[in-house]
Design a protein that fits this description.
Protein name: Acetyl-coenzyme A synthetase
Bound molecules: ligand 6R9
Number of strands: 30
GO biological process, one term: acetyl-CoA biosynthetic process from acetate
Helix content: 25-40%
CATH class of the largest domain: Alpha Beta
Strand content: 15-25%
Radius of gyration: 24 Å
Low-confidence stretches: none
EC number: 6.2.1.1
CATH topology of the largest domain: Rossmann fold
Mean pLDDT: 94
Oligomer: single chain
Structural class: alpha/beta
Family: Belongs to the ATP-dependent AMP-binding enzyme family.
Number of domains: 2
Shape: globular
Cofactor: Mg(2+)
Number of helices: 21
Distance between the termini: 29 Å
Length: 653
């Protein structure tokens, strides 16, 4: 499908959707011409305890980066996601929970939790937190499977003004420990075990291991999920079901400032330790809710399913906060796309009559590879809108998604955004934006993308442009700081290109003004939609005593989008072997988690370095991509001969 061929929304959809082309254009224009007025109006979509008078107070100026929205307003995010819906839709399902095992008896199969029930669960949970000494501003780490308690825990924190920091349950004990320490958490909420794809991860064991150094300082609240045996620390572990017996289901929401932190979410950067991305309460909620409504054309009564895990930002904004702020029915899925078989997604869509389905290109590619039969067995007529997120989607996968899953009837919204942005920045709106396979199309309201010439930092004014993607002005969902390190926030996002927010992504703008993300320009790789710093994998590798040096790059992978390619130089006296290779793979899994395991590991007697000792990743990337015809100038290398060896011994997949 050539770039210039548009897929137009049907006339009926354009008529019925929240926005048609004209509405989008008028609203977009208003949003960038007078952001104050636009967001003053749309800030009203949340219920404020004390209404805001100030709307926007933001600066990207070097040395003075400061982002505040609705700053004198007060609200409670949990009350916005629950209490305000009780009168009108107390008996409507808020959360549909679909367990890992579709036939599980002990899990009770799918659960439907109404807004009224959600209210009771969250109030009780909040009272349990209070009893454990948690209050406003305290950090709580959540390390849970995809069970309703994960949403209760998030909303309970929000209700009492505690700041949650979710750690994806696929992360190792070491990665968990680092995040607990980094935000100085008082409490960890976990489960005995996490069933996924028919296998169980021993979450509580990981917590115990993570807390070796603070063994009796950090409390732990445990949800009984599997009923397996766990090592219980009598003095500081608590069972949720026991603690809940002791509390009432009434808990008044705390009045929070718009700029009080709602959550911290650790995400990979190009250097050093993961960054604690901080999102605050008012602007984040306005933006998550508004994007959820417009991007998915969500309408009252519909069933919305985002397949992400709440451990990633997508789960925060589009499983919990956005949908619940809109009074939606949101589906939470504990399992994986291929268990019990590759038809699971479609089985769940049929069973719960899902209207909007939102997933990642890596899942689409994996399922596409299993054949159309798995899709065609199911009645998918309830589907209305399809979405993708996490990485660029190749047109082949886009077309399969459109044709086989959507039956050619469902607009696809390819949503580009980041942990840092809180919600969608580039995305089609179903009734308004003609789509092109592989393009995230046009900016959301209030978002001003610019394409800069990478070297000079000049904005390219022509419609057709290729360069780095920056954003010229703030939007309400923007992250506010890096937890405990505002300097790092400024340095990472506002120093390479002055007066802009630098996204770290490269992009192309075509003759129609459509944006095409070309991938990260920094040393961040995107494996199955999971963001990882090459530096993290490298430091895990060099922590092994056999490894002298390691360099990690991404390479195109047919299913994962990008795979991890590691070059490893061994310590003198250590010899390469298959055993050692396996040992290093297991080592990385343990240090970071299964998602960081290298797909290819090449023994490198030497790495290509400049005379100043900087590893030339450009060359390593080319070799990993098997594109060594295009290595470019290697004459500045301290020892150009290492390159020949690397090419010769390249790992073939
Ligand atoms: C939401 C999320 C952010 C990075 C981002 C970009 C890539 C996300 C994309 C996309 C092309 C899309 N990315 N959505 N690339 N098209 N629709 O994924 O957040 O985990 O922080 O990753 O993911 O490279 O910079 P996060």
């Amino acid at each position: 499908m050539p770039d210039d061929q548009f897929r137009h929304p049907s006339e009926a959809l354009a008529r019925e959707a929240h926005a048609d082309r004209e509405t989008y254009e008028a609203m977009y224009k208003a949003s960038v011409e007078d952001p104050e007025a636009f967001w003053r109006e749309h800030g009203e979509r949340v219920d404020w305890i004390k209404p805001f008078t100030q709307v926007k107070n933001t600066s990207f100026a070097p040395g003075n980066v400061s982002i505040k929205w609705f700053e004198d307003g007060t609200l409670n995010v949990a009350a916005n996601c629950i209490d305000r819906h009780l009168k009108e839709r107390g008996d409507q399902t808020a959360i549909i929970w679909e367990p890992d095992d579709p036939d599980s008896v002990e899990g009770g199969g799918a659960q439907h939790i109404t807004y009224q029930q959600l209210h009771a669960h969250v109030c009780k949970f909040a009272n349990v937190l209070k009893n454990l000494g948690i209050g406003r501003g305290d950090r709580v780490v959540i390390y849970l499977p995809m069970i309703p308690e994960a949403a209760y825990a998030m909303l309970a924190c929000a209700r009492i003004g505690a700041i949650h920091s979710i750690v994806f349950a696929g992360f190792s004990a070491d990665a968990l420990g680092a995040r607990i320490n980094a935000c100085d958490a008082k409490l960890v909420i976990t489960a005995d075990g996490a069933p996924r794809g028919g296998r169980v991860t021993n979450l509580k064991d990981n917590v115990n291991q993570a807390l070796t150094h603070d063994y009796d300082v950090v409390k732990c609240l445990v949800v009984k999920r599997t009923g397996q045996q766990i090592a219980f620390r009598e003095e500081c572990d608590y069972w949720l079901h026991e603690e809940q017996e002791k509390v009432s289901d009434v808990c008044e929401p705390e009045e929070m400032g718009a700029e009080d932190p709602l959550f911290i979410l650790y995400t990979s950067g190009s250097t050093g330790q993961p960054k604690g991305v901080v999102h605050t309460s008012g602007g984040y909620l306005v933006f998550a809710a508004m994007t959820h409504q417009y991007t998915f054309d969500y309408r009252a009564g519909e069933v919305f399913w985002c397949t992400a895990d709440v451990g990633w930002v997508t789960g925060h904004s589009y499983i919990v906060y956005g949908p619940l702020a809109n009074g939606a029915t949101t589906l939470m899925f504990e399992g994986v796309p291929t268990y019990p078989d590759a038809g699971r997604f479609w089985d769940v869509c049929e069973k719960h009559k899902v209207n909007q389905f939102y997933t990642a290109p890596t899942a689409i590619r994996a399922l596409m590879g299993k054949g159309d039969e798995y899709v065609q067995k199911h009645d998918l007529s309830s589907l209305r809108i399809l979405g993708t997120v996490g990485e660029p989607i190749n047109p082949e996968a886009w077309n399969w998604y459109d044709r086989v899953v959507g039956g050619g009837r469902c607009p696809i919204v390819d949503t580009w955004w980041q942990t840092e942005t809180g919600g969608h920045l580039l995305t089609p709106l179903p009734g308004a934006t003609p789509t092109k396979p592989g393009s995230a199309t046009l900016p959301f309201f209030g978002v001003q993308p610019v394409v800069l010439e990478p070297q000079s930092g000049e904005a390219i004014e022509t419609t057709e442009a290729e360069g780095v993607l920056c954003i010229a002005d703030s939007w309400p969902g923007q992250m506010r700081t890096v937890w405990g390190d505002h300097e790092r926030f400024e340095k990472t996002y506002f120093s390479d290109y002055k007066n802009y927010y630098f996204t770290g992504d490269g992009c192309r703008r075509d003759a129609d003004g459509y944006y095409w993300i070309t991938g990260r320009v920094d040393d961040v790789i995107n494996v199955s939609g999971h963001r990882m710093g090459t530096a993290e994998v490298e430091s895990a590798l060099v922590a092994h005593d056999a490894v002298a040096e390691a360099a990690v790059v991404g390479y195109p992978h047919p299913v994962k989008g990008q795979g991890i390619y590691a070059y490893v130089t061994l310590m003198g006296g250590r010899e390469p072997s298959d055993e050692l290779r396996k040992e290093l793979e297991t080592w990385v899994r343990k240090e970071i988690g299964p998602i960081a395991k290298p797909d290819c590991l090449q023994w490198a007697p030497g790495l290509p370095k400049t005379r100043s000792g900087k590893i030339m990743r450009r060359i390593l990337r080319k070799i990993a991509e098997n594109d060594h015809g295009a290595l470019g100038d290697i004459s500045t290398l301290a020892d150009p001969s290492v390159v020949d060896d690397l090419i010769e011994n390249r790992v073939n997949r």
